[in-house]
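Weekly structure sync, notes
Attendees: PL, DS, HV (note-taker this week)

Item 1: L-amino acid N-acyltransferase YncA
DS walked through the input record. Source organism listed as Micromonospora narathiwatensis. Sequence as pasted into the shared doc:
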Amino acid sequence: MAAGYVRPARPEDADEIARIQLATWRVAYRRILPRHVLDNLDEAYLARRWSAAVQEPPSGAHHVLVAVEQAEQSYLVGFVAAGPADAEALAPGEPADALGDGVAAVTDLLVEPRWGRRGHGSRLLAAAVDHWRVDGLSRAVAWAFDGDAATRKFLASTGWEPDGAARALDVDDMLIPQLRLHVAVPPTADPS
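Item 1 (cont.): predicted structure, written out as tokens:
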């Protein structure tokens, strides 16, 4: 197991979060998304969006957390972004209240592939769950590409399962299927 930890993202992390996002997408999604789409993603644009997400979250229950690998020096190796579910968490045609109250939505959970299988994803997810408990969220949802077996397997290993909702993202006139997974937020363990 790697020596690592999770902390809240800082404004100065935005560039590295964008780099991790691009590097991960270009490896993990190369068979899912069109190559020219991945090649044309703008890292500076993504960094500006991550900077805004960190500095001006929509609410106190929106969090961007980063995973840090510790060695002779520390490296950001992954991140998770989550907050209360909004319209983006809904399936096409679902009414606005379909998910109910108290639901968290994971918008991103990525660990750069070269740092995978070292516990960073589990630490990120555990830290997010801790925030959800504090924020009063009792269930969580996340969309995963149907063809992203690694993400689906990782989430399934932690208790997530499909909830029956599906959608297709239109990426440059190509429909990419996704399915929604969900999990109950486990209560805090009794220390006694």
